[in-house]
UniProtKB/TrEMBL annotation:
Organism: Plantactinospora endophytica
Keyword list, A-Z: Antibiotic resistance, Cell membrane, Membrane, Transmembrane, Transmembrane helix, Transport
Membrane-traversing stretches: 47-65, 77-100, 120-148, 160-181, 193-212, 258-277
Annotated stretches, region: Disordered: 1-24
Family the UniProt entry places it in: Belongs to the ABC-2 integral membrane protein family.
Subcellular location: Cell membrane; Membrane
Biased composition (Polar residues): 1-15
Name assigned to this protein: Transport permease protein
Amino acid sequence: MSTSTTAPETANGLSTPAPPRRVGPVALGLRQGRLEVRQFLRSRESVVFTMLFPVVMILIFASIFKGEIGGGVRFTQYFVTGMIATGLMTVGFQSLAIQIPIERDRGVLKRLRGTPMPKWVYFVGKIGMVAVIGVAETVLLLAVAALLFDLTLPQTAGAWFTLLWVSVLGITACTLCGIAFSSLPRTGRGASATVTPVALVLQFISGVFFVFTSLPSWMQQVAAIFPLKWMCQGLRAVFLPESFGAQEPAGSFELGRVALVLAAWCVVGLVLCLTTFRWTSRRDG
């Protein structure tokens, strides 16, 4: 026996439309995440400078520096750790710190705040986009390095697990810091000029382009304040021999400290997001 799906009738015989079906929080988050990913992929500049930049850099550096840095470690094997870390930082910190001010300047955030959509859905969409692009970027980078430059991938489950938790903590810290930093640029047009120099300086002082211990000691100490240095160090524990840890500043990879520092930055980033995020531009008050 079939059930009727027609709309109920009122006293005057006219049918009333059925109430709209409520969308659950999970569905809302997934929809917003898919929207953010599509918008990211439609921007050629975002794809090139965020997703393909680490791949291009490893193609250039690995083609130029083909020797060893010592201890039987090839430059490519060392360099890929910095490229994975900077790729995660780029998609988590740099892209959000530039995208959000542009959307704020265009009034997108102001309109979103005036809709019935919960505010958290916007952030879930951004986080989902960062996660999807970050995974895709890392897989692409590892595939290129392994196929073209004989990168030795992690050999044990423990190494893969370390890669996982360092990447998750690192990209979480970078994402939260990117959302918080998005309140600094005064306009969307000036966001890139404000954010990009910060990202480049962090890359140079954190051992992305050079062997970290070859940098001046004061530069190492400054880099140790920020997450990128610890992301690179944690990833070196994954891709480099255990014996190479003796060449780190502290004489080991210090994975426990890596976890503590990155977790601390997640807390700091969350606090800054909650206290500094703005939905309107400065001219809107």
